[in-house]
Specification:
The chain is α/β, with parallel strands linked by helices. It has one domain: Alpha-Beta Complex (Spore Coat Polysaccharide Biosynthesis Protein SpsA, Chain A). Helices cover 36% and strands 20% of the residues. It contains 10 helices and 11 strands. The strands form 3 sheets. A 7-stranded mixed β-sheet has the order 3-2-1-6-9-8-10. The protein has a two-stranded antiparallel sheet with strand order 4-5. Strands 7-11 form a two-stranded antiparallel sheet. The radius of gyration is 17 Å and the shape is globular. The two termini are 27 Å apart.
Length: 265
């Protein structure tokens, strides 16, 4: 018994549709329900699966890109990436973002807490710029062995040199895929994390920043490492999950070819 949750808005609907088709094509029985938090629109996913629960969120939000991501710091890289042509007619935010974009990124903390409290079952959060290519039972088994499970990576400083983004952290927890077990420590963690993040929801990076702060605050929480076959940004053939992080989702030929398989399903 378990739930998978994600967040979307109208701009991300094509990516969400491909994600859901790939999930129910390749791992249809892993989760009892898929909860999709839909910000300011009401899509119909009934043709994909009856196990999809839409959570409508009609919060009034500004969609104008007028906020600057101060955590990134990689402006030259962002500019270069911004010049690349999209293969799917979609382009995500880079250094400028809107209040709605930030809310969509951060509101997952509230959905995760709601699912844990309502169903008392393990929860997996996934970004929707993701393609499921195989069975996720192994991922769920990992999630059940720790309070929280994430894909660990080397720090931003090691990856990019002298950047401000989480410069005080010696490792990077990938935020696009996180598992939560049903333990006292997990609930304590998620409640604190949600409160910190949603008090600062207009900060696009709040979910990431306060994740580390909450890990340090809830000292007894156990963090498990998810194998990167469940969140592969290099699109290896052995991977069960491909992550469309950054511009991959709309510029990478291999990823977009796989995406087109499921958007037309």
């Amino acid at each position: 018994m378990s739930s998978l949750i994600c967040t979307t808005n109208d701009k991300y609907l094509p990516l969400t549709t491909a994600f859901l088709h790939s999930l129910f094509s390749n791992s249809p029985h892993t989760f009892n329900r898929v909860i999709v938090r839909c910000v300011n629109f009401d899509p119909d996913f009934s043709n994909i699966s009856s196990n999809i629960v839409t959570l409508l969120d009609n919060k009034m939000l500004c969609s104008k890109k007028k906020h600057f991501s101060t955590e990134g710091g990689l402006i030259n890289e962002y500019i270069t990436e911004g010049l690349q042509k999209s293969r799917i007619g979609f382009r995500g935010a880079r250094w400028l973002y809107s209040e709605e974009m930030a809310y969509c990124s951060n509101i997952k903390t509230d959905t995760i807490l709601m699912a844990l409290e309502d169903y008392n079952e393990p929860v997996v959060y996934s970004d929707v710029d993701t393609i499921i290519r195989g069975d996720l039972t192994g991922l769920l088994n990992i999630v059940k062995t720790h309070d929280i499970s994430v894909v660990e990576d080397i720090s931003y400083t090691e990856q990019f040199g002298d950047v401000d983004r989480l410069s005080h952290q010696d490792k990077l927890y990938q935020g696009g895929l996180i598992g939560f077990n049903t333990t006292h420590n997990t609930l304590k963690f998620v409640k604190q994390w949600r409160d910190h993040v949603m008090n600062n929801y207009t900060d696009w990076d709040a979910d990431e920043r306060y994740f580390y702060d909450t890990v340090n605050s809830v000292n007894s929480v156990s963090i498990g490492n998810i194998d990167n076959i469940y969140k592969d940004e290099d699109m290896s053939d052995r991977a069960i999950v491909w992550s469309g992080a950054g511009i991959t989702k709309y510029c990478d030929e291999k990823y977009t070819k796989e995406y087109n398989r499921y958007i037309t399903t």
